[in-house]
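Incident log entry.

Two folding requests arrived from the same account within the same minute. Monitoring flagged them as a possible duplicate submission, but the sequences differ. Recording both here for audit purposes.

Request one:
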Amino acid sequence: MKFKIVFYLFLFVCIVLFYQIFNTNKILNHQDELIQNQYQKQLQLKDSLFKLKRFQDTFSYFSLKGNPNLNQIVLEPVLQESELRKKLLEMNAKGGLNELIDMPSGRFLIDRVKVINDQWILIGFQSDKNWGQALLEYKIRSVGDDYDFKNVKSFIKSL
């Protein structure tokens, strides 16, 4: 009788241990899968950050304040960029953009201005029917703080 009780107790303990081992293995596999997924997401995020950093470096290089080669030429890049934007918007308000760029009739509004360097500006403009972009060349006039703009290349497309 004692032998049967000990045997059944031993058998019960073996079954419980086997269940624990099997269940622990499933839990560990699930945890390992979650860790691998997190690791893959982390690698993707690092790659995305690297691409964004590279894009930001390129984007800032093509600007007055981000290009280290222009530090000797342009003394106050932020001020010059804001003045150029202001002059372009004033010129557009007076209809000067139509004279500069061959555009169809209608009112165009400048929505984007990107100062590339000490000679070129990219602008984006649109109306209710058309949109376009232009590469402008600018020079500072010797008299006053005004700018001369010249259209290098532009295009206009319908919406």
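Request two (distinct sequence, not a duplicate):
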Amino acid sequence: MISIVNYGMGNIKSIQNAIRYLGIVSRVIDSAEEILNSNKLILPGVGSFARAMENMRKMNILDALNGAVLKSGVPILGICLGMQLFAEIGDEDGPSEGLGWIAGRVRKFNTTSGLKVPHIGFNATFFSSNNRILFDGLDEHADFYFVHSYVLSCEHETDVSSWTEYGEKFASSVRRNNIFGTQFHPEKSQRNGLVVLKNFVSSRI
């Protein structure tokens, strides 16, 4: 069963609806015990990096997330802010520590390009040739829906599984072992997004 972690900042209903459309059962969880008893996890998120980390600390679920993902190898998919929380540091609302699973920092978009921030709407995403588990069945690139003002700058290029350009080139998805993340919202990205969700929830990762 797919477990969606509710820490008070996610667009959970739309993710559940998309997974239900695929004919797959999911549940919403919010406790350490439920996290440790999950086969696959989805970490959604909309809003502030600092507030999200504070919420998870107050809920006492950080140790459970680390135990499930890092020790037990449970696959996890972070969506939007959920992906950003994988980083070591986030700058939104002041520098704060993230989960530290992906080496890098979450910073605001480079606004010198003159483009509007937040970045909102569909944009082309280009896939890394050696890291395509989430994108199996899609062409070399596809459009996905974005809503964000911050980007994850990865220290290691090998952690970037796709990239997008919006005034600058940024990581639109990441992957390290059993840790997957998308800056875009697959649940709002029509057919392409459903392919990504199906690949995560159905495949043996």
